[in-house]
């Protein structure tokens, strides 16, 4: 009788919470005041029904509350659960904008909580109704987990998937152009490198060619370190700069497998690479012309080279070079991830102090070429080997606390806007990044970082390798607490380089979760594996139907007010050696990236800042034909350019 009553209570609570979960998703589809009020109420009701169901189950299996607390509610598990809830809560938005915890972030949290609650109830329900018979072979080892016979095929297949996906996004979504000011400036520097120079001489009329994050004084160059622009220059020379990051992302899939295989096992490695292939955050950034994918790859190679250096001292040379090149690509990110990697390696090899000393010397030797590159780049672009382009442009050190001026405005005006950075704001920035990563890293209907939380909650203290992966991510977070600027650009870009280590933890959590489900429900290994693949397939299908279209719609229009319309128009028209004036309505970023590397051969694109500037440019280039690009019409949220041989409104 007790068993039948427990079954009824569990079944009723599961059905009710399933209906509440569906209602919550319908309310969150169209955020409103009513939804903002009802969502927490629905979540509270679901917890009440779940409490009845869990009480019934505990009564059935005869577990007292004291035994439950002593066995499961350990301090470490409670801390891990609270930490996960803090990651999900939009505390950064609250600290920076003063907005209370409402939609969309609290709506996401309510839905995540409801889904997890319904999933747990479903497990207990299946426990009551064991449709799949128990099997003595449940814990047998999977014969496919050992060996390397399928390794090349699996990795090559994953690399092919990543290459096709990133190329498709680069083509169909991003129009093969750079959209963000950072990437446009680095593309400009890559063009300069492609002709064998460090900088260009300023043009005759600087105002017409000025662009953000580009220094234009006695030398004309981008403000960023040279690491990514040097690699991007290879794409410029090939006539396909947009293919550089897809190639980098493709190689990343293979390196992640090698690193995971060295650190964990084949199953974890394959799952991590599989998740990488379907991560919207990874694929979108890997399709752009930002410098983050290169920094991720170089730092992942650094992690792998340090693992190999345990048995091959010569790998310290490679590790030093990789650490240095990561620094000349993204300095703060290199410190945030590179320092924990090196510290963990030293801790692991602390008993071999002679080996560490010899390896440290080789590491420093490997650093020397990158130190030379950074010092030379600073000297060639700013005239001071110890002054970076970023510091010269903004007239400020971006790190630390206090007033952080934006510096000189790209249009030549002095901005009075200043940001007072504090440790609380730095932590708030990191909270915002984690919120977005929780949503878009995998794009699943449940929180992307939940498997990591489960890994901690289940064991209380994961093993050394898992703690190492976590501290690498924490190290990057600590570094960016000191950086005052934060934005969501192709996702939470300041945590992008943590993706490999986060995916390894997520893979570990998913494998452990699924093994626990199989043990709890006494499911044989083969059906359990089929159910696992079915679950992952469903999650990816939901991502393709929800997260992917949202990101596609966000980036395919005028992302950062830049589209591929002008590039397409120029490719269809033979402009020869013309000067093309671009209406500011179209955003000069559309045209600035189309200028030739030497600013001599091919059409030159200048911003149309009025008749005086226009006449000065035409006087500087007297033998060139003149064209004008201006707004033709607006379509689907974007401005479509039109090319003419006279300015708009001029009928003479």
Ends apart, CA distance between termini: 96 Å
Structural class: mainly alpha
Low-confidence stretches: 134-150, 408-417
Main β-sheet, spatial strand arrangement: 6-5-7-8
Looking at how many chains there are and whether they match, the oligomeric state comes to single chain
Largest sheet: 4 strands, mixed
* Total beta strands: 8
The pLDDT mean sits at 84
- Rg estimate, integer Å: 28 Å
Question: What's the helical proportion of residues?
Answer: 55-70%
Count of discrete alpha- or pi-helical segments spanning 4 or more residues: 26
User: Any idea what the shape is?
Assistant: globular
Fraction in beta strands: 5-15%
If you had to describe this structure to a student in words, what would you say it looks like?
The chain is mostly helical and 652 residues long. The strands form three sheets. It has a four-stranded mixed beta sheet. The protein has a two-stranded antiparallel ribbon with strand order 1-2. The termini are far apart. It is globular, with a radius of gyration of 28 Å. Helix 25 links the parallel strand 5 (579-582) and strand 6. The chain has helices spanning 2-29, 33-61, 65-72, 75-88, 91-97, 105-128, 151-173, 181-194, 227-238, 244-263, 266-277, 280-285, 292-308, 315-327, 331-348, 353-382, 389-394, 423-440, 450-459, 464-481, 499-521, 525-545, 547-556, 565-572, 589-592, 611-620, and strands at 214-216, 220-222, 402-405, 418-421, 579-582, 604-607, 626-635, 638-644.
